[in-house]
Design a protein that fits this description.
With 291 residues, this protein is α/β, with parallel strands linked by helices. The protein has 2 domains: 251 residues, Spore Coat Polysaccharide Biosynthesis Protein SpsA, Chain A; 30 residues, no CATH class. It has 12 helices and 13 strands. The strands form 3 sheets. It has a 9-stranded mixed β-sheet. A two-stranded antiparallel sheet has the order 2-3. The protein is globular, with a radius of gyration of 19 Å. It starts with 6 loop residues before the first strand and ends with a helix. It binds uridine 5'-triphosphate. The site of uridine 5'-triphosphate has 20 residues, from helix 5.
């Protein structure tokens, strides 16, 4: 059977105020983890999950994201002429891995508003949303785990993780009931709950797969926490109406929207690399011994 979920949307139009000053002129989605920008890991995850068409939501000043996924003719010619085939392949693969589309969110009105900009691209199909500042690294792509759950249950799916009581009030809280190993039914959710509104310490982190009905719901979702149109508020309507599925996905998530997350991603990915890992580990051991 052909895969049902073939399209993905990556919202990358946020202002990135938590990682200023770098995000003033450099999109946080382009921050490097060793030698690749964060958003390339996210696109690679979607492609590994069988996604063929990817829309990145950008805004003013984020044109460098488009450049990264476009051909760089002069560079490619130079690499070809000098026989640097490995680098040439790496550069070309970025452009060729999926059909890439770009759209500007003209005002920064929240994640829900950014996703709603994708209506024409998505049409009448289910689609995946991969948050542009959440990199997830694992053997089984998180996006694919959610797509499989969508195909099995026929309901919207959110990627979930248990967080600490201190963190839950900054994220969103879900009402969940366990169905299977790592799979839950989700009947309610709330963005940035106060302590007495917390339903569980499970929160949505970085990924979801949604039916196209979400667009009509988003059209009728008023601004919520922070005066922004919250995707969580629209998904709440869906969860209460039809029920949703939560998948506690495997893989390590790095929050590239906060400074500590960026440092953790850099260290852990560098340590896992065959070419850099041993030398970097030796350097870190030396450094730590002096702390
Ligand atoms: P965040 O809330 O983490 O991003 O949104 P932000 O607004 O850039 O963060 P801070 O608080 O100012 O540091 C999650 C994802 O949604 C995108 C962001 O780019 C990020 O990938 N987003 C957010 C949009 O595309 N548009 C928006 O209006 C808001």
């Amino acid at each position: 059977m052909a895969q049902l979920v073939k399209k993905a949307v990556i919202p990358a139009a946020g202002l990135g105020t938590r990682v200023l000053p770098i995000s003033k002129a450099c999109p946080k989605e382009m921050l490097p983890i060793v030698d690749k920008p964060a958003i390339q890991y996210i696109v690679e995850e979607a492609v590994a999950a069988g996604i063929t068409d990817i829309l990145i939501i950008t805004n003013r000043g984020k044109g460098v994201i488009e450049d990264h996924f476009d051909h760089a003719i002069e560079l490619e010619e130079r690499l070809e002429a000098s026989g640097r085939t490995e680098e040439l392949e790496a550069v070309r693969r970025i452009t060729d891995m999926a059909n890439m589309y770009f759209l500007r969110q003209k005002e920064t009105k929240g994640l829900g508003h950014a996703v709603n900009c994708a209506r024409c691209f998505v049409g009448d199909e289910p689609f995946a949303v991969l948050y542009g500042d959440d990199v997830i690294i694992g053997d089984d792509p998180a996006c694919g785990q959610l797509c499989r759950a969508y195909e099995k249950h026929g309901k919207g799916v959110v990627g979930i993780k248990e967080v600490t009581p201190e963190q839950i009030v900054k994220y969103c809280s879900l009402a969940v009931e366990k169905l299977d190993d790592r799979v839950y039914s989700v009947s309610d959710m709330i963005e940035k709950p106060s302590l007495d509104q917390v339903m569980s310490n499970f929160s949505i982190l970085g990924r979801c797969v949604l039916p196209p009905d979400i667009f009509d719901i988003l059209d009728n979702t008023p601004p919520g926490a922070g005066g922004e149109i919250q995707l969580t508020d629209a998904m709440r309507t869906l969860a209460v109406r039809d029920g949703m599925i939560g998948v506690d996905y495997t893989g390590t998530r790095y929050d590239m929207g906060n400074k500590l997350g960026i440092l953790q991603a850099t260290c852990e990915v560098a340590l896992s690399r065959k070419d850099l890992g041993p030398a970097f580990a030796a350097y870190l051991k030396e450094l730590v011994s002096k702390l």
